[in-house]
């Protein structure tokens, strides 16, 4: 409406210098009209005036990646479409979600983080306070410890995409204040060894975290890929524990209580514990083991012809840097070192690439990650032998893909190796 | 709950602990030129003075006991700071049948949400051995206090945090009774709930994964 009347007005006062008028008319496009110019690809874009500047960018019409999920739910997850992304960074609006009682709407002006317990001086920090402290930025992955559960099965369905298997993985540049900086302000009491981290969501979700990690590289993050953390990732501030399972990295962080023992919340007893074949359950299994997955070629890709293709995917370890990724194109009989794309960062997704000349026959593709501790991503059989077929969480076995003669690619758990 | 008042007064060691960190930060700032980037020979020498971290940044606000108490809701296995109140099995049945039954079923086993009741399998702890065994409070949860802690935080789903301590003690009593862990005449309160020994209490072990070549 406003655009139309403005253009009408411009037309009515058209007796101006031609060049000036043209510039004015072009600039007079409204936001919607300008955006609309990007919606239809032009046969010859060099002969049609393009879209103007805009206050907010948009994706190319042909590129509309979405999170992978079922019906919207408040206690559920949505997955990053890892096979549709390049490099290692996850766009913030495609970061995976796992909520326990929905995404809270938090007023940043009323937000406070309380730190108390075994401290010299219990304190509250507003969002502005947090941002005033010396800050750090780092790239690291966040992965749900239940990621890959569908693959922990020798008979897993072949029609599964990388995101359907391992899409509870995202990588961002996080910015915030190191937790050690805040603990230095409050003064940690002698004998303290744990913190309780508590969220401000409707589950008031809470996890106990060892003080050692808090003093190592834990961060109170408020920035994600250059902007404020998105609500689904913990706005206005979350706990970031590089390399550790996502659940412990409490979003919407409202309280940290310094203590000398864990609180044994539901999320560290009933959930997020890993029963083992020996009749025990592993507790506080925070670190994400080294893992990799080929994201291309993978289901539902169909290779249209034989010849050279680049096998690519992601590798990551919660214990440090990825030192090597090995790729097999023959079901694990032989392995070759893949090229690691810089940057290769500690506790961060690493992109790997490996060129492959497909001869048109059946091929089983695999990748295995090796981290700086010397850990080698195991195959499913080895992992099941170590933990038991019924274990939960931390599913990091090798992900095989079977290329059929028609070029179709299918998840192929149980193949080879 | 805060344990500050219980043990010996915590001694100040934070400063000792963090001196190396402060020096590291200072060194980093110097080497990476956080100060004015002045070429040699010109006035305005680069100093490291501004990069030294102060003993405190004096940012933030003191938290009063009332402000802490308003948020300090956790109830751990030692029962420290547990809220006053109590509840019986019979009272818990009333709470359960009113506010829990819709998601957890008439006997705590029917769902549709998490199954709360059940002691099967009666032998061993075979959850790691084979898939598909439903975890319940009776067969898997190691601490009774977790019921109180979790219900206080998050239940009922559509009205989280709405139950009184008496109601939470009562519903914990009822769930423990249904799981055949406490008798029907038991009363749960700040003393008795932490004293309940859960069947799976000794099944939980620390994480033994350490990286390196061994797959655990």
Automatic annotation (TrEMBL), chain A:
A Pfam entry, by short name: Oxidored_molyb
Keyword Metal-binding: yes
UniProt GO MF annotations: heme binding; molybdenum ion binding; molybdopterin cofactor binding; sulfite oxidase activity
Residue ranges of domain Moybdenum cofactor oxidoreductase dimerisation in the record: 286-396
Alphabetical keyword list: Metal-binding, Molybdenum, Oxidoreductase
Record carries keyword Secreted: no
Annotated region described as Disordered, given as residue ranges: 57-79
InterPro entries (alphabetical): Ig_E-set, MoCF_OxRdtse_dimer, Mopterin_OxRdtase_euk, OxRdtase_Mopterin-bd_dom, OxRdtase_Mopterin-bd_sf, Sulfite_DH_SoxC, TAT_signal
The protein's required cofactors: Mo-molybdopterin
Gene Ontology process terms (BP): sulfur compound metabolic process
Residues covered by the Oxidoreductase molybdopterin-binding domain: 100-264
Protein name as catalogued: Oxidoreductase molybdopterin-binding domain-containing protein
């Amino acid at each position: 409406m406003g655009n139309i009347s403005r253009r009408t007005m411009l037309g009515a006062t058209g007796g101006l210098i031609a060049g000036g008028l043209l510039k004015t008319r072009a600039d007079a496009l409204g936001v919607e009209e300008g955006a609309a110019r990007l919606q239809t690809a032009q046969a010859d874009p060099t002969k049609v005036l393009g879209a103007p500047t805009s206050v907010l960018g948009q994706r190319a019409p042909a590129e509309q990646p979405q999170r992978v999920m079922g019906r919207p739910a408040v206690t559920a997850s949505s997955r990053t479409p890892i096979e549709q992304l390049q490099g290692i960074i996850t766009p913030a609006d495609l970061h995976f979600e796992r909520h326990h009682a929905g995404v809270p709407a938090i007023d940043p002006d009323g937000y406070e983080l309380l730190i108390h317990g075994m401290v010299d001086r219990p304190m509250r920090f507003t969002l502005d306070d947090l941002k005033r402290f010396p800050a750090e930025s780092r790239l690291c992955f966040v992965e749900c410890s239940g990621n890959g559960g569908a693959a922990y099965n020798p008979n897993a369905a072949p029609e599964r995409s990388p995101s359907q298997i391992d899409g509870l993985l995202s990588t961002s540049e996080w910015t915030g204040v190191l937790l050690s900086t805040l603990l230095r302000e409050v003064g940690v009491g002698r004998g303290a060894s744990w913190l309780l981290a508590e969220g401000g969501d409707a589950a008031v979700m809470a996890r106990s975290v060892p003080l050692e990690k808090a003093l190592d590289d834990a961060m109170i993050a408020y920035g994600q890929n250059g902007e404020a953390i998105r609500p689904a990732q913990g706005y206005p501030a979350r706990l970031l524990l590089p390399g550790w399972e996502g659940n412990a990295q409490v979003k919407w962080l409202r309280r940290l209580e310094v203590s000398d023992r864990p609180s044994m919340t539901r999320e560290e007893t009933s959930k997020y514990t890993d029963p083992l074949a020996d009749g025990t359950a592993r507790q506080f299994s925070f670190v994400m083991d080294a893992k990799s997955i080929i994201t291309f070629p993978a289901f539902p890709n169909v290779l249209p012809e034989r010849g050279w293709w680049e096998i690519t995917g992601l590798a990551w370890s919660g214990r440090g840097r990825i030192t090597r990724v090995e790729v097999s194109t023959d079901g694990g009989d032989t392995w070759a070192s893949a090229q690691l794309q810089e940057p290769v960062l500690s506790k961060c997704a690493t992109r790997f690439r490996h060129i492959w000349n497909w001869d048109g026959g059946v091929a089983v593709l695999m990748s295995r990650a090796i981290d700086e501790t010397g850990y080698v991503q195991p195959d499913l059989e080895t992992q099941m032998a170590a933990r038991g077929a019924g274990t939960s969480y931390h599913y990091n076995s090798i992900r095989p893909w079977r290329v059929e003669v028609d070029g179709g690619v299918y998840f192929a758990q149980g193949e080879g190796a | 709950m805060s344990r500050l008042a219980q043990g010996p007064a915590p001694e100040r060691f934070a400063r000792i602990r963090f001196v190396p960190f402060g020096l590291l930060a200072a060194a980093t700032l110097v080497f990476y030129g956080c100060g004015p980037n002045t070429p040699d020979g010109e006035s305005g020498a680069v100093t490291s003075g501004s990069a030294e971290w102060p003993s405190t940044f004096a940012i933030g606000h003191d938290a009063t006991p009332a402000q802490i108490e308003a948020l300090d809701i956790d109830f751990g296995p030692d029962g420290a700071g547990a809220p006053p109140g109590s509840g019986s099995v019979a009272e818990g049945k009333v709470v359960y049948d009113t506010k829990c039954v819709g998601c957890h079923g008439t006997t705590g086993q029917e769902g549709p949400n998490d199954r709360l009741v059940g002691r099967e399998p009666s032998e061993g702890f075979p959850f790691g051995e084979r898939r598909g065994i439903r975890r319940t409070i009776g067969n898997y949860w190691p601490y009774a206090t977790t019921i109180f802690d979790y219900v206080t935080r998050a239940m009922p789903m559509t009205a989280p945090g709405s139950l009184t301590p008496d109601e939470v003690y009562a519903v914990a009593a009822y769930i423990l009774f249904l799981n055949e862990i406490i008798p029907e005449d038991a009363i749960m309160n700040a003393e008795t709930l932490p004293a309940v020994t859960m069947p799976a209490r000794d099944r939980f072990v620390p994480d033994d994964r350490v990286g390196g070549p061994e797959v655990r």
